[in-house]
Amino acid sequence: MASTEDPVNIPEDGEDIDAKDIIEETDDEVESLETSPAPDTTAAKGKGKMKAGLIVAKKITKKTRSFVWDHYTRLKNNHNKCCCNYCGKKMSCASSSGTSNLRKHILACKKYLAWKATTSASQHVLNEEADGLHLGKVSESFLREAANEMLVIDELPLSFIDSLAFRHFCNKCKLQKPHSRRTATRDIVDMYVRRKTLMKKILGGKKQRLSLTTDIWVAHNIGASYMVITAHFVDTNWQLKKLIIGFKNVGDHKSVTIAAVLKECLEKWDIKKVFCITVDNATANRNAMEIFKADFIEVNGEESVVLNGDYLHVRCATHIINLIVRNGLQEVDKSVAAIRNGIQFVRSSAPRLKSFHLRVDIGKITRGSLARDCKTKWNSTFLMLNRVMDFKMAFDKMMAEDKPYNDYFQERVYGKKRHGPLAKDDWEVIDRFINFLVIFYQSTLVLSATNSSCSYKCYNEIVSIQSAFIAMTCQGHDEELKKKATAMMTKLGKYWDPFGEGTEMNRMVIVASVFDPRNKMKFAQLCFDQLYGKDSFKAKQMHDSIMSILKKLFDEYNTRLSSSLN
Questions:
Q1: Where is region (Disordered) located (predicted)?
Q2: How many CB atoms lie within 10 A of CB 217?
Q3: Same domain, yes or no, for 351 and 393?
Q4: Residues 515 and 398 placed together within one structural domain of the fold
Q5: Four-residue CA torsion sign, 76, 77, 79, 82
Q6: Helix (H, G, I), strand (E, B) or coil at 374
Q7: At 246, is the secondary structure helix, strand, or coil?
Q8: Do residues 184 and 110 share a domain?
């Protein structure tokens, strides 16, 4: 039956019937439309017919909508055009043309195929009006690789992959079920082999010239010694890279053993060109470098090193600073021990800490934490001493008012009385020594950079340290400070004196500062004038020596480049 309650106009020729004008009775019933009386004209062909002054619409059977409309969106300003939800391509979609062109495009659309490969029927649409944005499902192989890399980068235990926390994370993020620790072990070994093969091609195939650092440390819990070798190089994108190429167990610390392990490691990686090797200041390392240089040149030729290997051995600057500071800490060991004991007393219980904070508040001192140092890291000792100076008044009040604090230092440990409490002389010694430590601490921060090159900064820090000590010895009024500065200068000269008889500083460190375009040779000349006096014999000698090294480097590289091109 036709309905006359909601009449609609019959469309003219060439127009489509709007879906909004069709009233759905049931899924199986026929839909009909009825309109108001129309003029005495012939109705559009195929659209309807005249009957009793009424235009009755032709029976329309509801058709299933094509699947392609799940992947296209009609343009608002042009109903006959649509846009692919994946690649954004605009297509014609007039009703009279059908959807064959849309179907062909979507089945060949690369972005649609990529989305289809990472989604599943169980995943739902985030927003039906968000241009086809769907939840993507991470593949099992991708999750497995990413999890293995996470274990390696963050040095996590292999058991983490089986932990409840990681499995809960994967489940909540709707990821694949993670693999086991045994599978992770095999995958990490395979990943190491693949990446090692790739790096061998990069380092050996391109004949890359590298700089090396190596050191030996002892695992005290098992008593075994390990030698670590790290390669440093600049890649084709001018980015500084470092790579651990050796982690070897060694039986002793002899020079012959060090040279043999180093040579074996370079042969394994097919490395045939080395610029310099940085080691600490042990005598065995100095002898090992001489043995290694002779063997390496004999096997790989003179082109394997630069300038006949005269500047191959570089002494670690931070290790030199560490030796000098530790020597100085021995002179104030009792005062430092008294500070450690005072901090240990304050932090040993909550009532003692509360009592200390009460005196901090009375003295109107800014609150802060009192951290103990690590005895093997002198920079942590500096931070401890520098921080405790802010609480000098609070410690003085505790010594004057707190009986348990004074009794604590009367106790004996291993038959010896504890050092402390801190007296006036101890505070003066620590305050004076901090003036030295801050110089070394700032230089250590600069020279310990790992993500950027710092070789060109090394000589600048050496000059800064020496200049600070010269100023203390010449301009200061504190006689004790002058004595300590003079002693420090003597220790520095043992390692960083370019004219030293026993241990001469590697002058390639100065050449590196000249290569900095902000410094060039003018900076080096200013440093020579400041350290040795303007127009002095030593300043001129250093200037001529550096210029000679620069010319030799240029001639050697120019000759090798010309021969390789020919």
A1: 1-20, 27-46
A2: 10
A3: yes
A4: no
A5: negative
A6: coil
A7: strand
A8: no
CA contacts within 13 A on the Cβ side of 244: 7
What kind and span of H or E run contains 128?
none
pLDDT at 546: 92
Query: 404 and 323, same structural domain?
Result: yes
Cis previous bond, 421, omega within 30: yes
Total domains present in the chain: 5
Note whether residue 27 is domain-resident. no
| Range from 260-264, 373-377, 442-446 that averages highest in pLDDT | 260-264
Is the pLDDT reported for residue 125 higher than 80?
no
d(CA 168, CA 163): 9
Which residue from 330, 327, 318 is spatially nearest to 462, judged by alpha carbons?
318
**Closest Cα to residue 239, out of 204, 202, 276, 265?**
202
Sheet holding 90-92, edge to edge: 72-74, 81-84, 90-92
| Structural domain span for residue 418 | 318-448
- Residue that terminates a domain, selected from 397, 423, 448: 448
Between 184 and 469, whose confidence is greater? 184
**For residue 435, how many other CB atoms are within 10 A of its CB?**
15
SS3 labels along 39-98: CCCCCCCCCEEEECCEEEECCECCCCCCHHHHCEEECCCCCCEEEECCCCCEEECCHHHC
Cα within 13 Å of Cα(490), Cβ side: 8
* Distance (Å, whole) CA 257 – CA 255: 5
Give me 255's structure tokens: 């020079």
Within a domain: 130: no
Query: SS3 for 228?
Result: strand
Domain boundary residue, one of 287, 315, 343: 315
pLDDT: which is higher, 254 or 19 = 254
542, part of any domain: yes
Are residues 216 and 265 both part of a single domain?
Answer: yes
Looking at the structure, do residues 497 and 551 belong to the same domain, yes or no? yes
Residues above pLDDT 70, as percent of the chain: 81
Assigned domain for 166 exists: yes
Task: Please tell me whether residues 335 and 440 are part of one structural domain.
Answer: yes
The strand pairing partners of 212, in sequence order, are: 231, 277
Quick one: residue 301, left, alpha or beta (phi over 0 = left, psi -120 to 50 = alpha)?
left
Instruction: Judge if 311 and 329 occupy the same domain.
Output: no
pLDDT digits (tens, 9 = 90+) for 528-546: 988 888 888 989 999 999 9
For residue 124, pLDDT beyond 80: no
SS3 track for 477-536: CCHHHHHHHHHHHHHHHHHHCCCCCCCCCCCHHHHHHHCCCCCHHHHHHHHHHHHHCCCC
Where does the pLDDT of residue 37 fall: very low under 50, low under 70, confident under 90, or very high at 90 and above? very low
pLDDT in tens, 84-101: 999 989 988 888 888 888
What are the backbone dihedrals phi and psi of residue 82, each rounded to the nearest 5 degrees, phi first? Answer: -140, 170
166 φ, ψ (degrees, to nearest 5): -70, -40
Contacts of 501-505 with C-beta under 8 Å, sequence gap 24+, read 503/281, 503/315, 505/315, 505/462
Longest dimension (CA), the chain: 126
Q: What is the mean pLDDT of residues 2-12?
A: 40
